[in-house]
Amino acid sequence: MAILPIVEVPDPRLRLISEPVAEVTDELRDLIADMFDTMYDAPGIGLAAIQVGVPKRLIVMDLQENQDEDGKPIREPRVFINPEILDPAEEQSVYTEGCLSIPEQFADVERPARCRVRWLDENGAAHDELFEGLLATCIQHEMDHLQGIVFIDHLSRLKRDMILKKLNKARRAAA
Ligand code: GNR
Ligand code: NI
Predict the structure, then answer these.
(1) In ligand 1, which atom is closest to the CA atom of 102?
(2) Which one-letter DSSP state was computed for residue 35?
(3) CB atoms < 10 A from the CB of 11, how many?
(4) What percent of the chain has a predicted confidence (pLDDT) above 90?
(5) What pLDDT does residue 1 have?
(6) Which residue ranges make up each domain of the chain?
(7) Which atom of ligand 1 is nearest to the CA of 43?
(8) pLDDT value at residue 28
(9) Is residue 147 within 8 Å of residue 85, measured between CB atoms?
């Protein structure tokens, strides 16, 4: 169990196309555990392996939408290995996105409102489900990471440059 350093823009590793996972091994399950530690610590609702420097088609996610009687979030961890997106809806939806690799910066991104997702879980079992709402948004955001794409790539150059400027300003202030 370990919290791993998160790769941030403009690190060129975020531009890599991640490779399919050939086999679900114990070593991969260790990486998955570390990715959950890292995601919950951040905190974030999703994390792609390349965000911890590993160019594999592996995503962890927990939207943490439900809470117990004490208001504590109920953990619903999900693992996506070699995910594929099928049948993206024509209907679009807008969500204010953030990214652990672009810390504390947010912008509205339009994406298909629903999609079908096919993936393997941490036991190597195949799944095929329809996603909508935040789940659809988040899986598409994570799938982008596997292709070397970050959410600001979906914005106009003006908006993207504004975010990168704000990020650099925040980094200079923190230094
Ligand atoms: O923690 C995260 N929040 C988030 C909010 C809206 C849309 C997508 C996300 S994913 C992000 C974590 C992250 O960077 N995953 O790659
Ligand atoms: Ni991200």
Answers:
(1) 14
(2) H
(3) 14
(4) 98
(5) 79
(6) 12-174
(7) 1
(8) 98
(9) no
Nearest CA to ligand 1 atom 14: 99
Kindly list the protein residues whose Cβ atom lies closer than 6 A to any atom of ligand 1. Answer: 44-48, 51, 95, 97-101, 137-138, 141-142, 145
For domain 12-174, give the fold: Peptide Deformylase (3.90.45)
Express each pLDDT in 95-151 by its tens digit. Answer: 999 999 999 999 999 999 999 999 999 999 999 999 999 999 999 999 999 999 999
Pairwise CA distance, residues 2 & 162, whole Å: 34
- DSSP summary character for residue 156: -
The yes-or-no answer on residue 142 being catalytic is yes
The residue whose C-alpha atom lies closest to atom 16 belonging to ligand 1 is 47
Residue 175, pLDDT above cutoff 90? no
Atom of ligand 1 nearest to the CA of 137: 7
Average of pLDDT values for 32-60? 98
Residues 55-97 have pLDDT tens digits of: 999 999 999 999 999 999 999 999 999 999 999 999 999 999 9
Residue to probe by mutation, ligand 1, list 138, 143, 147, 163, most atoms within 8 Å of CB: 138
